Amino acid sequence: MPKTKKKVVKAAPKAVKASKSSKDSALLLEVKQIYNFMQDNELGTVEYQQKGTVVRLVRAAPAQVAVPVAVGASAPVSMVSPAEQYKQVIKSPLMGIFFRGSSPSAPPFKREGEKVKAGEVVCLIEAMKVFNEVRAEFDCTIKKVLVDNGRPVKMGDALFAIEKN
Hints:
This protein has two helices and eleven strands. By secondary structure, the chain is an alpha+beta fold. β7 (121-127) and β8 (130-135) form a beta hairpin. The relative contact order is 0.16.
């Protein structure tokens, strides 16, 4: 059985040179569409396969730039944790990665200002490739989301500032 060769195309945010053949032009258009989809949905990696052609796009991490900070007369910085700053919070029951929705492209389970019934899922914590649901213990309103999506959290970290209903 003959093996088919896969054509792998790697694209970066830099401009891609178009070749003269119509097959390559069509591929370039598909890559641009996939790249736009990736940007619109804030995805880190996208892999697409069709008719023996594999396209994998990986977004490079933004370069970190050191910014000089003036030392001198500045306002005092509060060293109060979010758990201490807000009267009531939903805390992480375990260590893992915080996710607001069921997938990167899915809407969050709950948004700021939404009412939550006891037992409703408010977020997911991924630990060891297992997604654990975090549920509200009582009826409440989400006042503020305290953790960015996809960030690591420790057990006991405040995830949401809430107000009992």
